Amino acid sequence: MSLEAGGKNSTGWQNPENILCRGCGSQTSSSNFIISKLSPSSHYAFHDTLFNREMVLVQVVSHNIIFQFPVITTTQSTCQGYGEWQVDNSWFPGYRWKLCICPDCGEFEGWILESINPGSPESPDEVFCLVLTSVIGESFIDSLVKFPVDF
Ligand SMILES: [Zn+2]
Question: How far apart are the CA of 82 and the centre of ligand 1, in A?
Answer without folding.
Answer: 14
